[in-house]
Amino acid sequence: MRRMFSLFLALVMVMSVSMTVFANPQSKPNGPWIQPEQEVKLESLMSPEDLEKNLMQIKDRARPDRMELDVVGYSATYEYPIYAVKFGEADTDNPKIFIQTQIHGDEQLGTEASMDLIQQLAMSNNKDITNILDNVTVWFIPMLNPDGAVIFETEQGQSKQRQNLQVWDPAEYGLAEDTQAPWYYRPDSVSREMGFDVNRDFHPYLDFELGPDTAAYIPRRSSEPGVYATPEALASRAVFKELQPDLFIDHHHRYSNIVSEDDDRLNTLQIIAQVVDEDTVVSFGGTDYQLDEESLNLSKQVNSHVYQALQRGNSPFGAVSRYPEVNLPGTALGSYSMNGAAIMLYETRGQQHPYGHTGQKANGQYTQQSYVGLYETLRGFATGEIYEIDPAFYDEEIPYGSPRIGRPN
Ligand SMILES: [Zn+2]
């Protein structure tokens, strides 16, 4: 009986602790939240076919000599072309930026925002746009994981999925049949289909090839880098190697959070300038890969610049905070940052599956938010404003420690 009572007491304590975190935002949800009777429809977002069609149309209408459109790989299962869109040369003294979206198929709004920006860069003669084109090289991969972006139906509504749809086949790499897959080959949380989390498939050694000689590197835990087992990661790597960007931007989504313990506004965006610890070293082939201070400082300047742009005037996008600290050398951001690129991660609220969807209205707002962030980044490099920012702003002024919250209904 006594034991039962202390168990009960412990439960009450756990509940009251979580209640204090959840109570405020739950009592005045500032949405938009999707309502229970509202059906989740994803057709308004670009399918891989729509993306291709739109890219061809933009290319046709682009002003002469502005835009190059390349196929840099094919998706693992449906063999969709993976497109790179290029403005400016790799061989230049201008700052070089690589923007990548939808490495996770159910995280789409960065693709929508990038396509709006690509259209502007290809077609507009606005002075700010021509100034960007003259002073910045910017390349995009919009929708790195088209297989994951294909809609499927569930009992709860439509969904896309995080992973690709590739089946682990050791023979493809010349490996013994019983070779165990990397830890990031796993079932999707909604569809239960097996596939790879492409964003754990990266290694700082950019010539890494999976084969009999490197099978010992197949990772068993998230602190270890990946092995480029997916054609999607290989496509991203090819673009990174060709461009050698000063800045790499990766666009994602996450669940609902509030800004901080002291600010219960619903987070519209989380950002981060660092996804690998300063003392993490990955050694391969006699080279040590590690973060360097100069690119980390530029990462903090870029993240601060976007944060400030989203606070300005009557921006509806002010509820921005820093993403939790992580140490993930196997992500695209992690591996590329260990190769001297500054980085920025976008984590917009909500995913394109029934448990993360936030509705049509929010999709429009969050796409616009990412557009503003990306556009301001290009403008900031073109004018040089970004280099004027004190990197300490990032650590001192951007809110941190967002508690996760559930739906208020
Ligand atoms: Zn993601």
From TrEMBL:
InterPro entries on file: CARBOXYPEPT_ZN_1 (IPR057246), Peptidase_M14 (IPR000834)
Single GO biological process annotation from the record: proteolysis
Keywords per UniProt: Carboxypeptidase, Hydrolase, Metal-binding, Metalloprotease, Protease, Signal, Zinc
Keyword presence, Signal: yes
GO molecular function: metallocarboxypeptidase activity; zinc ion binding
Top-level taxon of origin: Bacteria
Cofactors demanded by this protein: Zn(2+)
GO cellular component: extracellular space
Pfam families per UniProt: Peptidase_M14
Domain Peptidase M14: from-to ranges: 50-370
Record has Nuclease as a keyword: no
Endpoints of the signal sequence: 1-23
Similarity remark: Belongs to the peptidase M14 family.
Name of the protein in its database record: Zinc carboxypeptidase
Lineage of the species this protein comes from: Bacteria, Bacillati, Bacillota, Bacilli, Bacillales
